[in-house]
Amino acid sequence: MADKAAKKQRGRPFPKGVSGNPHGCARGSRHKASLLAERLMEGDAEEVVRAVVTAAKNGDMTAARIIIERLLPPKKDRPVFFALPGIASAGDAAKAMGAVLAAVAAGNVTPSEAGEVSKIVDAYVEVLQVAEFEQRLKALEERANATYATF
User: How do the domains of the chain map onto residue ranges?
Assistant: First the structure.
């Protein structure tokens, strides 16, 4: 019966925001696995690289891929060039999206690239709408203040 009352606490033994190790890990300390891998490769790194290069020269496509990925990492994005009309209002966004669609249809831009450009156009239109709303609100406040000033 007494064992049930003295159960081990589960969950968070410390209050929120208070750590059991207030000083934490020392600055600049490294993970044990990283240190072990570094020690294992310490004297053999040059040999490993030479072995991978030799394997690639002998036709090992996996070794060749490793070397190419290190020398020429895959590009994540590329600049796209096509005529995009200016966007001064939310109504101009339709023309801009038409230009994006035309660029995809012409093969100048991939659909995924067009999707990214569309997101940028949408974000810009949102900013324009917020700015327009702010101007309208300011004008209404000024008009309301002028009305109350006459009373």
Answer: 32-71, 92-149
